[in-house]
Amino acid sequence: MDLLRAIGLGLVVLLPLANPLTTVALFLGLSGDMNSRQRNRTALMASVNVFVIMMVAYYAGQVVMNTFGISIPGLRIAGGLIVAFIGFRMLFPQQKAHESPESRSKSEELSEEPEANIAFVAAGDAKYGRAGHHRDDHQFGVHRARRL
């Protein structure tokens, strides 16, 4: 019974972090030229991806950080490097030699793009979810992150 209560509490706590109003506007903007069937399939796939990302970050984040000895400042540096890498990859996209741009439908692209999943989860949600396990949020930099 305690496990079900913990899972339910985790879902309730993560719901406001998903920022549903902004996410809906973002999704509709990205899927504007899709038909209803493609949009529904993409929404389902994106929802599953976001659910998995948020649950892993919430429930396993602290265990992983303790296991590998990762500190919050180290996590911030790694996060900055990842964002920079994704940004440069978006600036200079590489075309695959064996695949033309028309060969994949937009619905497949949207739900499989890491950038879309990151946007749907929203910046900092994974960090807030992981930091929610701590009693002293200030010690782990959550207050400073909220001001950004």
TrEMBL record:
One of its GO terms (cellular component) is plasma membrane. Its main location: membrane. The chain crosses the membrane at residues 6-30, 42-61, 67-88. It is a multi-pass membrane protein. Pfam families: MarC (PF01914). Residues 129-148 are annotated as: Disordered. The keyword Membrane applies. Keywords: Cell inner membrane, Cell membrane, Membrane, Transmembrane, Transmembrane helix. It is found in: Cell inner membrane; Cell membrane. The keyword Membrane applies. Belongs to the UPF0056 (MarC) family. This is UPF0056 membrane protein. It comes from Cedecea neteri.
